[in-house]
Amino acid sequence: MHYQWRFFFAICLPGYWIGVSAMASTPEISELQRQFTPLVQKDLSETLVTASLLSDDEVMQLGVWDFDPNRLLGTDNDEFGSDEARAIRDSLNQVSLPWNKLWLQTENGDQISLTGKFAALQVKQRVQLDRESRDLAEHRVYSAHLGVSYLKNFTDHWQGQARFSASWMHYENTFEFISPLAKAFKPVINGVFSNYDVNALMFEPTIRLNYRWQGRNTRYRLFSAWHYLFGQTIHADIDAHDVRPHAWYWSNGIELSRPVFRDTNSSQQLWSRFSRVNVGGYLSEPTGSSHYYELGAGWLINTPKFGNYVTNLGVGINLNYGSTLKGGTLVILYNIGAF
After folding, report:
1. Which value, in Å, is the radius of gyration of the alpha carbons in the chain?
2. Per its UniProt record, what InterPro entries does this chain match (predicted)?
3. Per-residue pLDDT averaged across 9-24, rounded?
């Protein structure tokens, strides 16, 4: 994950410190802002696509309580978890509320559905720039997604799915200048690197292939889903906030579901999923790797009386291996797709 306070350290590179300390005119300030515009654009692009990734529970799950699996298993694998990764997780607050509404279904089971999602992401962290005090950086992304999905049943086992969704995203950045060092740079960064907001439109085409089968009481599904993200900020006030983010991620894995009791019609299910997620574009640096692994398991209760809006609820555990958010978390499961 990236935080915009890294620009303080960039500004302090040799040669820039003298310029900032001695500047006395608006043109000098504007020139410094112009030189760091590409860094702001990169960070804003990464923030927008990362917020989209984190709102997709199938590829990255954040929970209500985080832990380091190494401490439970007695291992020392840095790719499985670390104090730094847990601190990053603790700085994140994320909510995603997806829904799916069946629009049309054919005799052979093909479906056209409307999909939607409301999501919010908050990143809040104290930044220590000197020994005396810590400044507060906070980033918030609110998004509303709407899309259409077409599911095609090729055989009893094979399914294909195509989906296209559009998202409106609102990004807010706030920074409290507390330390003397931060206050010294306020004329340069305020309104450019910090304390600004911007809107963006993001689009996401998705192609998915499933293979399903059943053995005794257990249902299995192999899946491969490719997502592409692209968009643009709207009516940006300055060049630094005029960005066109793009990224992709590809998840491959297996899901299992079986009734808690022997009754195959039980409303309670044991669910698990293992997947590998490859990422590219502006997602590579925030996730810290070109790929990572996710393992999730939980207890689900079907909720038919809520219709398509809340199909199931549950609780479980999710493990992430190899990304910036590596580690374990207790998760609240919501609207896990049936198969």
Report:
1. 22
2. Omp_AT
3. 40
Give the separation between CA 18 and CA 60, rounded to whole angstroms: 43
Q: Return the exposure string of 209-225: e unless at least 16 CB atoms fall within 10 Å of the residue's CB, then b.
A: ebebeeeeeebebebeb
Distance CA 312, CA 290 (A): 32
Residue 221 lies in a domain: yes
Give the Cα separation of 189 and 174 in Å (integer). 11
Mean pLDDT, the chain, whole residue set: 83
How many other CB atoms are found less than 10 A from the CB of residue 233?
A: 22
Q: Which of 272, 274, 282, 278 is nearest to 292 (CA)?
A: 278
Structural domain span for residue 306: 26-335
Q: How confident is the model at residue 175 (pLDDT cuts 50, 70, 90)?
A: confident
* 197 CB-near residues (< 8 Å, 6+ apart): 170, 171, 172, 173
- 246 in a structural domain: yes
Tokens of 257: 């579901």
Whether the CA torsion 89, 293, 329, 161 is positive or negative: it is positive
Contact 1, 285 (CB under 8 A): no
All residues at 6 or more sequence positions from 289 whose CB lies less than 8 Å from its CB, including other chains: 279, 322, 323, 324
Residue 296 has pLDDT above 90, yes or no: yes
Cα 101 to Cα 2: distance, rounded to the nearest angstrom:
35
Closest CA to 320 of 92, 163, 119, 115: 92
Determine the residue type at 134.
R
Residue 327 sits in a domain whose CATH number is: 2.40.128
Q: Do 328 and 319 contact (CB within 8 A), yes or no?
A: yes
**2 located within any domain:** no
Determine the Cα–Cα distance for residues 339 and 330; give it in Å rounded to an integer: 24
Q: Is the pLDDT of residue 60 over 90?
A: no
* pLDDT attached to residue 169: 97
The domain total for the chain is 1
pTM: 0.87
Residue 19 falls within a domain, yes or no? no
